[in-house]
């Protein structure tokens, strides 16, 4: 069955405003079911977690349902799902906890392709422990992250390898499973940033070999919440800083403070939305989520192919290199215009794109583009259409023919 993008778009109230959203890598619009779940939760009595009375039991149900929803999305156990406000916050918590076990001479491997949320927490934890940071380099000519280099980077003193499942700058999809095998052979743990990968296809965390895997719900039609998952036994072996009276259970002890119960309701609704993307999907929610995201990925590829071909045909547009098989994300620069000017002009035309370094700090630093304003990013999500791509390309063509003076 073909992907019914008209039906899918009708599930996003924000699209009625008429903006063209090519900034899914920065955050997607919430689905209607998510909005309804959040507001519905706020219309009813919800107290802090307690089994003693109904409003307290309701909050317990929100938490349990959210853990189960994330588990169905990623193929993990619900009691291995740690919930939190953002991928950055959760990764810092994990880095501080693991870093307390490191000693001088230990090593940590990070990648210059990654979002800084999967770099800086590990660099700082290594600095505090006196551990050594080793860097995996991407190929600037192809945008690839060569797997072979990890054989030299990982050794008997490696304690952790941090790598992205997909670059939020150019969409590169590293061979995470192969990198994880090399790391595990040396006894190292693997933390995978799945924030940009999860929205664009089915995810199987065990198959990737990730010991820890993080995702953000607002990148897949949900609210501003995140989840960091691991085997429950892995969590049980770790002792984070925590308040003395707070729960010492797993995974609760890794979650600070009282969560936003309405947002947790929205997270669950977002997974339900993904499970409904393919109306012919059958079976349990995990199966339906996989079918929905597979259908969405096929649609996104058609839209993205149109975008890549159109950008390549535009004079004055320089596309940053990335390999085939990437997530549907592209970064580019327009001659005669800084990235900020390009994004602003497109914004005035109702077209939303990100610009700058998008927190892919090391990537743009390595290319020498950070001081020149970075680039402009177009990220396709399953509610985008080829007609929207054509509007974007036409606007870029108009801007390119305007002869703007390069300022970046």
UniProtKB/TrEMBL annotation:
Residues in the signal sequence: none
Domain of life: Bacteria
Domain named Aminotransferase class V: residues: 22-392
Gene3D superfamilies found in the cross-reference section: Aspartate Aminotransferase, domain 1, Type I PLP-dependent aspartate aminotransferase-like (Major domain)
Pfam assignment, any one: Aminotran_5
InterPro entries, A to Z: Aminotrans_V_dom, Cys_dSase-rel, PyrdxlP-dep_Trfase, PyrdxlP-dep_Trfase_major, PyrdxlP-dep_Trfase_small
Protein name: Cysteine desulfurase family protein, VC1184 subfamily
Lineage per the UniProt record: Bacteria, Bacillati, Actinomycetota, Actinomycetes, Micromonosporales
